[in-house]
Amino acid sequence: MKKILAGLLMGCCALAQAQTADELLNEGKNTENVTLLGTGYDLKMFSPLKQINKSNIKRLVPVWNFSLSNEMGELSQPTVYNGVMYVVNGNWTFAIDIATGRQIWRTPVTYDRAALRVTTGGAYLRGHATIYNGKLYRQNIDGHVAALDMKTGKEIWKTKFGEWKESYGGIVQPTIVNGVLISGMAGGDRTARGFVDGYDPETGKRLWRTWTVPEPGQKGSETWPNKEKPDAWKYGGGATWQSGSYDPELDLFYIGTGNPEPYNPKYRAHMDSLFAASLLAIRPKTGEIVWYYQFVPNDSFDFDGTAESILADVQIDGKPRKVLFNVNKNGFLYVMDRTNGQLISATPFMAQNWAKHIDLKTGRPVLTDLLERALKGETIEMSPARATNATLSAYNPKTGLLFLNSWEAMRVMKFVDVKLQVGGGYTGIETRFTTPKGEPQGFHKAVNPLTGKDVWSVPYYDVVNSAGMLATDGGLLFTGKLTGEFIALDMENGKPLWQFQTGSGIVSMPITWEKNGKQYVTVMSGIGGVYAQRAGDPNLESVPVGASLWTFGLRGTF
Question: Exactly one of 142, 302, 304, 537 is catalytic; which is it?
């Protein structure tokens, strides 16, 4: 490894003191930097880099490896800016020299360890290291959002957004949008009422708060009971635990919300429960909800609406449309007009048994008898348990294809009675994951989002895939496995072309970047997430915990 490092020609760069709004808007034009989740506000997870391609992928080898001193699971994406890589997790914030893989600074996250109970499924931090105007922004588990100096790692400000004892936790990275730091929250599965916040990035002063569960008298409150169980909204759920996407031309920020709480709908009088399980289009300067779409009214299956919205400009019926693609946890792929929320199409991208179809006129799912049977007290087997994990899919704007990792896991579920209280973990169900023996655990897929049809589908049998997908112009798809393999697939057919064992499970989003004309690929390894924590899968018993950061390059180029 010393020989490899000595041969690096990238050089150690001084820490940058500026990250501008223009740089964020032009993400992808400077391929030496990766400063936004999903490689851009549009969350396409596509890179134009092609030095690493199908013809030379077998020459891809580790350049350096860095220990992240963490056993809590690595579900986020690194950030690269002017020769420095910034990494966040539940316990630390790092600045790393990309030339050597050596630590520049490391800042601990201080919090009451009891706050760990507000997180769910081992998801201790999602998103990416957010940088802007010389500062790095992050959430902390105990309900704070903070700003650090990019040069030193010293904390500049810290603002409390919620009380962790009431189950408000920080597991989602904020996003800089039109000069506003937009930040969500976790805790919806523990009866925390959801919201989205906007902050002044210089001072940490909260500028606005938009509640995702309305109180009586607010828009949407008519979808919550006001006579029977009139306090239901107080426990409402609707957490905003994923980062969003942004259209600068429309000045709209798109963020999804989690399920209503509890899942058992009788505690919500079987009503629609806005704005849970929804997609919100928000005005960044004010927090105004310009339009919304509810994927599953009265969501009783934990489907959420938090999946990313990928932004694209396409031709539909010969006319240009500004659309978004939503690869939903409920098993449907939604295409929507992002200017107004009009539903264009909704097609299943995997087997599911909870809905017959989505009514395009009303936007509502047409249900099978599954929910009715569950309400009668039956233990049901619901598909999908979650169609994809909370890591990102990829979209190639040149081919118009979406690439994703699907889950075939099913949820065994039964509604139960609960006693609700703020800060309690009362979902109102008994549940576990299951998969049919001998059947695929999931598929690597290429999907035409405008038709919903698979272009190719490659099964995998060992364990569900929880990692994000990265597409490159080199014809490659990079993703990872819970058993620790970092893999490259052929974009044309999904054929595995290369893999490397990282030592722990991969549940993060890979990135690619270049320096001095040389392309590199980076991924974080460290098992965590809902399936790893809760499924009891025997295939994961031998996968060790412990986190590390891996950077790869082509042998002979460094």
Answer: 302
Residue range 73-117, pLDDT digits in tens: 898 999 999 999 999 999 999 999 999 999 999 999 998 888 887
Domains of the chain: 2-554 (2.140.10.10)
Contact predicate 91/109, CB 8 Å: yes
Query: Is residue 151 pLDDT above 90, yes or no?
Result: yes
Per DSSP bridges, beta strands 380-382 and 410-415 are antiparallel
**Which single residue is written with the structure tokens 């929910």?**
371
Residue 57: helix, strand or coil by DSSP? helix
Q: Is 113 exposed, middle or buried (0-12, 13-18, 19+ CB in 10 A)?
A: exposed
- Extract the tokens encoding 168: 């408000």
Record the pTM. Answer: 0.95
Amino acid occupying residue 442: G
Cβ-contact 17, 133 below 8 angstroms: no
Select the more confidently predicted residue: 461 or 399: 399
Predicted local distance difference test score (pLDDT) of residue 3: 41
Q: Would residue 247 show up in a list of annotated catalytic residues for this protein?
A: no
The tokens for 362 are 């009303």
Six-digit token pair at 38?
């999903």
Residue that the structure tokens 């009088």 belong to: 269
CB atoms within 10 A of CB 373: 12
Quick one: which H or E segment has residue 402?
Answer: strand 401-407
Task: Report the Cα–Cα distance between both ends of the chain, in Å, rounded.
Answer: 12
Sequence letter at residue 219: K
How is the chain split among helix, strand and coil, in percent rounded to 5?
Answer: 10, 40, 50
The pairing of strands 126-128 and 75-77 is parallel
DSSP for 127-139, written as a single string:
EE-EEETTEEEEE
- In tens, the pLDDT along 183-214 reads 999 988 888 999 999 999 999 999 999 999 99
DSSP 170-219: --B--EEETTEEEE--B-GGGTPPPEEEEE-TTT--EEEEEESSPPTTST
